[in-house]
Design goal:
310 residues; binds nicotinamide-adenine-dinucleotide; alpha/beta
Length: 310
């Protein structure tokens, strides 16, 4: 019988689907590495979300493992190299969460541009900050998209058609469909940073994208610009960003992801009024989680069917 260890909370419909397809499911929520090393034995499949971390040690401890499946996007918690060396397939369900992440990016744009979070904070403290809360409209502004893949393209469409924004984008791979649909202009990273009023980042974290936005790049941005990052924390050099926000190189930022998660209490970012912070909730909607759980279960079942094990 095919045994799958579900090591993170996925939607119950996904678990039901696995069981009704004849898979034996073990469910342990986010076990620490030491526990996972023992648990993984005897399992043919492992399903995780952004946690737990599937280290080389875990992979090498597995004796039956054929597939590691990540419900959602991003495999930075999986040692893909170690999996590849042992012929273990790595599956993801990135399609499931893209709309939710894109909507959060737009939400952060509004929260920063209209000082929504700042105003809310002050209201609760009993302050009526009307005169300090003058914001800027998104309408008619230039949106700069860095990484025009699935999420970047949705953000571009929402901003183009929802706010009549002009779209500029940079991506090593050109996206003709996006250009046709939205009139987006393809340009260099530097040009995006220099020209855009709102810069939104949607690249994967890879060695080439680590600190893609550093001190030098932040200095290219307009003083009035807003930076949105819902991709991965390490794409932006946090220390440089704190400096940029403190010293007014840019006007504000909206962040969902951090180099260190959870963001340590008292982190300099939490002391700045021109930044809006959310705790990596891009994919945290009912719709995205339901889709991610079901989609990953379907992919795992498909994998075992192909291997004629189901
Ligand atoms: P995708 O693979 O569809 O798109 C990524 C795009 O980035 C691709 O078009 C790729 O060509 C481009 N790219 C690669 N290197 C680049 C570079 N150096 N400069 C510019 N562009 C580059 O991915 P996606 O599904 O759109 O996801 C984008 C990001 O969102 C990922 O980092 C993912 O981890 C993150 N994400 C975050 C959350 C969250 O909860 N905040 C949830 C899901 C995904």
């Amino acid at each position: 019988m095919v045994k799958v260890l579900v090591a993170s909370r996925i939607h119950e419909d996904g678990i039901k689907l696995l069981k009704s397809s004849g898979v034996e499911v073990t469910y342990v929520e986010e076990p620490p590495e030491n526990e996972l090393v023992d648990l993984i034995k005897g399992h043919h499949g492992l399903i995780v979300r952004s946690k737990p971390v599937v280290t080389r040690r875990v992979i090498e401890a597995a004796d039956q493992l054929l597939v590691i499946a990540r419900a959602g996007v991003g495999v930075d918690n999986i040692d893909v190299e170690a999996a590849r060396e042992r012929g273990i397939e790595v599956l993801t369900s990135p399609e499931a969460t893209v709309t939710s992440v894109a909507e959060l990016a737009v939400g952060l744009m509004l929260a920063v541009a209209r000082k929504i979070a700042f105003s809310d904070r002050k209201m609760r403290a009993g302050e009526w900050v009307k005169k300090y809360a003058e914001g800027t409209e998104l309408s008619g502004k230039v949106l700069g998209v860095i990484g025009a893949g699935r999420i970047g393209s949705i953000v571009a469409r929402i901003c183009r058609f929802g706010f009549n924004m002009q779209v500029l984008y940079y991506d090593p791979i050109r996206n003709p469909k996006l250009e046709e649909e939205t009139g987006a202009k393809y340009t260099t990273l530097e040009e995006v940073l220099k020209t855009a009023d709102i810069v939104t980042i949607h690249v994967p974290l890879m060695p080439e994208t680590k600190h893609l936005i550093n001190e030098e790049k932040l200095k290219l941005m307009k003083k009035t610009a807003i930076l949105i990052n819902t991709s991965r924390g390490a794409v932006v050099d946090t220390n440089a960003l704190v400096k940029a926000l403190r010293e007014g190189w840019i006007a504000g930022a909206g962040l969902d992801v951090y180099e260190e998660e959870p963001l340590p209490p008292g982190h300099p970012l939490t002391t700045l009024d021109n930044v809006v912070l959310t705790p990596h909730i891009g994919a945290s909607t009912h719709e995205a989680q339901a889709r991610a759980g079901v989609l990953i279960a379907e992919k795992v079942i498909g994998f075992f069917k192909q291997k004629k094990l189901l």
